[in-house]
């Protein structure tokens, strides 16, 4: 569940992207047009954005619905950014409530969001969690499926993986451990956007050389919006969007030669 959006391009007021469009993320909190699971995204919201010359993003998150926070409209009217990630939340059953459970999650220069649900959580991913460093488990922001998925992604980023590899490997690993999970992930460092379509809708709007928007669903009726096929990895900058079937990535990993241990 949830709806999310990331943007790279010229500086814009946050409200121009999140509040003003006819089918904005704000409106999607109570009237999404293409959401396959759930109908209302009122369990929290958040936005993270980047200021010029500062690689570490700021965040504004709340535990209630976005429409109930008049302060956000003021903030969104005056704060400008050329890179952001925002989300409205429909909580997975059994997951913790509260501001800490609202995306985007953050670490260093990274912002992350998860649209979906991990099937059978938490038992289904207990073995994956055991592979994480204890300090990372103890540092989880919230007791949610999204938080553990973020920990798995972040562990790979800290090990040196690029964003696309970290998302792809995490999705394939979680999907193997918890079949029927919905794993639409969204990641940005303020310069690139990486996303997966796995079980729910994902779209992008791109004007090459100017801007790129990646979102759960279009925020307006511009005919240039393109739907991302299911089980696909998206990697984007303001100048380019690349789509790669996740199945191909899985096959490439499975067929890669493995060195035999020396004797």
TrEMBL record:
Entry's EC annotation: 3.5.1.118
Catalytic activity reported: gamma-L-glutamyl-hercynylcysteine S-oxide + H2O = S-(hercyn-2-yl)-L-cysteine S-oxide + L-glutamate
EC class of the enzyme, as a word: hydrolase
A Pfam family: GATase_4
Pathway: Amino-acid biosynthesis; ergothioneine biosynthesis
PANTHER family for the chain: GAMMA-GLUTAMYL-HERCYNYLCYSTEINE SULFOXIDE HYDROLASE (PTHR43187:SF2), GLUTAMINE AMIDOTRANSFERASE DUG3-RELATED (PTHR43187)
Biological role stated in the UniProt entry: Catalyzes the hydrolysis of the gamma-glutamyl amide bond of hercynyl-gamma-L-glutamyl-L-cysteine sulfoxide to produce hercynylcysteine sulfoxide, a step in the biosynthesis pathway of ergothioneine.
HAMAP family: EgtC
Protein name, per record: Gamma-glutamyl-hercynylcysteine sulfoxide hydrolase
Lineage: Bacteria, Bacillati, Actinomycetota, Actinomycetes, Kitasatosporales
Gene transcribed to yield this protein: egtC
């Amino acid at each position: 569940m949830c709806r999310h959006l990331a943007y790279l391009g010229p500086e814009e007021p946050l409200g121009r992207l999140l509040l003003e469009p006819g089918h904005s993320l704000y409106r999607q909190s109570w009237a999404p047009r293409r959401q396959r699971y759930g109908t209302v995204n009122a369990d929290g919201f958040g936005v993270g954005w980047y200021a010029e010359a500062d690689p570490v993003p700021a965040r504004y998150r709340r535990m209630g619905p976005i429409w109930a926070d008049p302060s956000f409209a003021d903030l969104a009217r005056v704060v400008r950014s050329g890179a952001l990630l925002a989300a409205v939340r429909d909580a997975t059953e059994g997951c913790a409530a509260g501001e800490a459970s609202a995306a985007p999650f953050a670490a260093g220069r990274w912002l992350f969001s998860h649209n979906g649900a991990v099937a059978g959580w938490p038992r289904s991913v207990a073995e994956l969690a055991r592979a994480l460093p204890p300090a990372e488990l103890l540092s989880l922001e919230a007791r949610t499926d999204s938080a553990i998925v973020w920990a798995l992604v972040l562990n790979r980023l800290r090990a040196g993986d690029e964003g696309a590899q970290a998302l792809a490997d995490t999705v394939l690993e979680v999907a193997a451990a918890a079949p029927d999970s919905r794993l639409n992930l969204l990641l940005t460092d303020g310069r690139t956007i990486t996303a997966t379509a796995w079980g729910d809708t994902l779209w992008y709007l791109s004007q090459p050389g100017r801007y790129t928007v990646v979102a759960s669903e279009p925020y307006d009726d511009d005919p240039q919006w393109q739907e991302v096929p299911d089980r696909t990895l998206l990697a984007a900058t303001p100048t380019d969007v690349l789509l790669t079937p996740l199945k191909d990535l899985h096959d490439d990993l499975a067929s890669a030669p493995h060195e035999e241990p020396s004797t």
